[in-house]
Amino acid sequence: MSTNAQDTSAWRDLRPRLMSAAVLVAVAGTCIGLGGLAYDALILGMMGGMAVEAAALFGLSVKSWRGVLYLLWAVCAGLSAATGHWAYFSVFCISSLVFGAPLCAIMCVIILAGTALLWLRQGSFWPVLFVITVVVASDSSAYVAGRIFGGPKLAPRISPGKTRSGAVGGLVGAVATGGIVATLSGLGGVGSALVWGGILGVSAQAGDLAESAMKRALGVKDSGKLLPGHGGLLDRFDGLVVAAPVAALVSVCAGASMPFWAAGARTLLRALAGHLSGWGQ
What we know:
The protein has helices at residues 3-34, 36-57, 65-82, 89-95, 101-120, 126-149, 164-185, 190-218, 233-236, 240-254, 265-280, and strands at 153-155, 159-163. By secondary structure, the chain is mainly alpha-helical.
């Protein structure tokens, strides 16, 4: 296929990608805004859907009793967090070893991501909105910048389609979006939001590459077919499953007195010192 034909095909793929993204944004935006049961149901559905895809990738049929158990494992972990039993996530993660190391590893990612997203939506919707919009901006900016500028590949052995220009574009988009969301929220911390936007953007790109490496090792193109232009839920949320736990960890350190993106190095070090001193007693 010629270069022009590849470029035309790439831009044609953008249409279903944007359409499915628009539907996803509408549904997710409504649930995030409403919070409560609607938001919990959204996260539990996401966790269950990703568990189904993970099981299929490793040859575990969801029609088998082990497949059903694997699905319920993710959903029950989400229910535990949604009802305020935050510490139980580690129990669900460790005990998922009964499914074997590969499925356990993915289950841990699903549980950490779901728990983090539920944690971030305890009060205001702004923390969740910050994380999701930064991840979406990183992905979309990287896609567009890569198509426009091209250039050297970022990690050709893992994901031949990703370019260094796309990675830079994704970082710029994440930083800018972090600042915009912080400004719109009126909660302050705009300067540090630029930094955390960049950190979450890099985290999202790392998650994207990790999922690409997994699919390449398994010899599959997409994790599923649920989202046109994106593939499956694991394909769409590969960046979010890394960025959300990072944001939640910062939120735990920052406390309820400030949005997580307002936390600076001093706040994080103080929280870390407090935890370490608590363990030593």
